[in-house]
Design goal:
Strand content: 15-25%
Order of helices and strands: EHEEHEHHEHEEHEEHHEEHEHH
Number of strands: 12
Strand order of the largest sheet: 3-2-1-4-5-6-10
Radius of gyration: 19 Å
Distance between the termini: 31 Å
CATH architecture of one domain: 3-Layer(aba) Sandwich
Helix content: 25-40%
CATH superfamily of one domain: NAD(P)-binding Rossmann-like Domain
CATH topology of one domain: Rossmann fold
CATH class of one domain: Alpha Beta
Largest sheet: 7 strands, parallel
Length: 334
């Protein structure tokens, strides 16, 4: 099993003593707010009392936003982040931007490298250029940019070694966001869990769905390590940054948990504790996505944030979801 203990946990979401928090904004813009993370974040922000504006092209539909249209604090702008007019319209009365819009994941970016470059890099530039200088941009980057592990544990100062189009594009976008001056950049662990706009191209989600529906999993390179974070914890991390912006501004944070470093084998065996399925670890062959790294989350824990949803809890939810749905048009980004 992979190592788990690297730091003392801090109570989730509790600021350190003496912290001066950022005054909560009246309205938050979420670019890509109809997506996997955005649709979860929109609901969490509304529950916290924020106004929410979502800018989204609805490439993957609007179903994730359906519960929110009845809320008077919710505003929707249909548009592309590469369209400066749509971005400027969405920015009205906004005091924080959460930039999520983009083509997400290794398979989707490999399928259309030029198109994903245009959206993920140029789209970020359009959003940053249109955002007033005093309005913070909270950017969702990725731990994938660490690529093949060159140090035992990756920290925020570890040189990036992106192996995929997606990881390279996120690294380029980080540089654009940093030029805005008012920012927080989150390098997230691999997302998983149930969301209003579901994705099955994420490793735990994919493995769980296949185990439940196909009763078979063939897994290559079982020892490869990933770090994971539940989608609800991703949403909580953004709300934490909004509330604690003054002491987090201008910094990059790995976002995840030191207790959530798992190998592919670990994930399969957790699922197998709950689902009776055939599992085969293949000795020949390999995955095209060659990420293999463990990440330290000491920095984000040090300012008071720690995820609360464990892998075991998340897989329980995924099993229930997989048993309840039959997917004809799978929720894959690619």
């Amino acid at each position: 099993m992979s190592p788990r203990k690297h730091t003392k946990k801090t109570k989730p979401g509790k600021p350190t003593k003496g912290t001066q928090n950022f005054s909560p904004p009246s309205r938050v813009l979420i670019t890509g707010g109809a997506g996997y993370v955005g649709s979860t974040l929109a609901g969490e922000l509304l529950r916290e009392g924020y106004g929410v504006t979502v800018l989204d092209s609805l490439k993957f539909g609007a179903q994730g936003l359906m519960p929110y249209f009845g809320d008077a604090r919710f505003r929707f702008v249909k548009g592309d982040v590469r369209d400066s007019r749509a971005v400027k319209e969405a920015l009205k009365d906004v005091s924080v931007v959460v930039h999520l819009a983009g083509i997400v994941g290794f398979p989707a970016c490999r399928k259309d490298p030029k198109g994903s470059q245009d959206i993920n890099v140029r789209g970020t530039k359009v959003v940053v250029d249109a955002t007033p200088k005093n309005v913070p941009v909270l950017f969702a980057s990725t731990g994938s940019s660490y690529g093949k592990m060159i140090e035992k544990f990756c920290t925020e100062t570890t040189p990036l070694n992106p192996l995929s189009d997606y990881a390279r594009q996120k690294a380029e976008a980080e540089d654009i966001v940093k030029r805005h001056k008012e920012f927080v950049i989150y390098r997230f662990a691999t997302a998983f869990g149930v969301s209003p706009r579901m994705r099955l191209d994420l490793l735990p989600n994919d493995f769980t769905y296949r185990a439940v529906k196909d009763k078979t999993l063939i897994v290559y390179e079982k020892h490869f390590m990933r770090t994971f974070i539940h989608v609800r914890d991703m949403a909580r991390a953004f709300i934490f940054a909004i509330k604690n912006y003054r002491r987090m501004r201008g910094e990059v944070y790995n976002v995840g948990s030191n207790d959530m470093n798992y190998s592919k084998e670990d994930i399969c065996l957790i699922i197998k504790e709950r689902v009776d399925y055939y599992l085969h670890f293949a000795d020949v062959g390999h995955d095209l996505d060659q990420r293999d790294y463990m990440v330290s989350y000491d920095k984000i824990h040090g300012v008071g944030f720690a995820p609360s949803v464990s892998m075991h809890q998340g897989i329980e939810e995924l099993i229930k979801m997989s048993e309840a749905i039959e997917i004809q048009n799978p929720h894959y980004n690619a």
